[in-house]
Amino acid sequence: MDLSTIIFGVLALAFLVLIIQAIRQMGAPLEMEPDEEEAALAAAMEAEEEPEPEEEEEPEPSEPEEMREPEPQQPTAAAPAEPEEPEEPSPRKKPRKQPDRKEEEARLRKGLAKTRGGFIARLGSLFRGKHEIDAEMLDEVEEILFTADIGVRTSQELIDSLRKELSGNKLGDPDAIWSHIRKRSDAMLSGPGFGAIEVDPRVKPFVILVIGVNGTGKTTTIGKLAARLKEEGHEVLLAAADTFRAAAVEQLEIWSERAGASIVKPSKEGADPSSVIVDALKQAKDAGVDVVIADTAGRLHTKANLMDELQKVRRSISKWVDGAPHETLLVLDATMGQNAIAQATLFKEAMDINGLILTKLDGTAKGGVVLGICNELKIPVRFIGIGEKMEDLREFEPRAFVQALYQAAEPRAD
Length: 414
Ligand SMILES: Nc1nc2c(ncn2[C@@H]2O[C@H](COP(=O)(O)OP(=O)(O)O)[C@@H](O)[C@H]2O)c(=O)[nH]1
Ligand SMILES: [Mg+2]
Hints:
Blueprint: H1 3-27, H2 34-49, H3 64-67, H4 101-111, H5 113-127, H6 135-147, H7 152-165, H8 174-189, E1 206-211, H9 218-231, E2 236-241, H10 246-259, E3 262-264, H11 273-287, E4 291-296, H12 303-320, E5 327-333, H13 338-350, E6 355-359, H14 369-377, E7 381-385, E8 393-395, H15 398-406
Parallel strand pairs: 1-4, 1-5, 2-3, 2-4, 5-6, 6-7
Antiparallel strand pairs: 7-8
Helix pairs in contact: 4-15, 5-6, 6-7, 7-14, 8-15, 9-10, 11-12, 13-14
Guanosine-5'-diphosphate binds near residues 216, 220, 359, 362 and 385.
């Protein structure tokens, strides 16, 4: 072996070693250095944990004003954000003079003072000053509702919904209970059809039949209603179909004079009520009168006879004017409390009733009965009577009613 061969061999060997080393270095980046791997894993874990936000301190729930249901807005200035009730095209000939809203509210509140003094005041004082209520207090709420004049069924429904709605932590919050009762009351009263009668101008005469037990306030209410309709520009004729007592006819006559309405009276005491109404309808047609309001008798001790009589009256009316009576209004005396519910049930079985008028709310603590009546009978309240005077008949507005009823007793409205 000569020297050149040895040198070549050594060089070739060195070259081979270099190539092997280069190949090893190229493969190395494919595997992660163990410490790099750890760092990447830690970063990924961090990334996963990261979305968990820093526990932001919730706005303190003990800020009671924010948690409570917003105070019912004053319907006028205080509620600009709320869309105004759309003014429906009114069939009224003349727009009614809009009474001062504030004055109206004050009068309604005054008229409902006694009712407010009933179960609502008891609830208010039960909750006043409390920040938490327990199961025992809820039993007291239950007792108050059951002894209120709202009827057993409505009390039970309120309590059931209360327990259901206010389960869990809300159960301890007096404000939540208060606002729940208030909301449910509002919902019970806000069925379709509440509020004033809209006289259909295409119908002439528009016939309103007023029924109810004696003494509930039919004649007085008819007088107030006639005055109202006159003020709206309608010609009104009253039919004195409570023919059993001369005094009833005289009373309606006085009201017809006050209201500026005409009247058709029976020829003699005890005359057939239907014939008086038919006379009135004929006269109304001849004279182009807009509205006929028929008064009726309502003696409960002849219950079956009374219902027969009313059905007969109804049939006669419908024979003389198509689609009439256009409104059959049942007058109920709020001072009768739960008896008013029983009465309404009875009348509803015999007659199609479009609306209720609840009178004498000014003289009773039993006005809560309106909740029971609306809830059980599903007949809308058209008007309420809060006094004996002409202006004491109010269109029924559930929201204003609930507000007048609950607001002053609000547990925190000291
Ligand atoms: N305090 C008060 N008394 C009323 C109201 N509505 C009627 N009354 C009175 O209740 C009594 C009976 O009313 P009336 O119209 O004769 O009842 P009717 O027998 O059903 O016709 C009368 O003394 C009325 O003045 C009311 O809303 N409030
Ligand atoms: Mg009468």
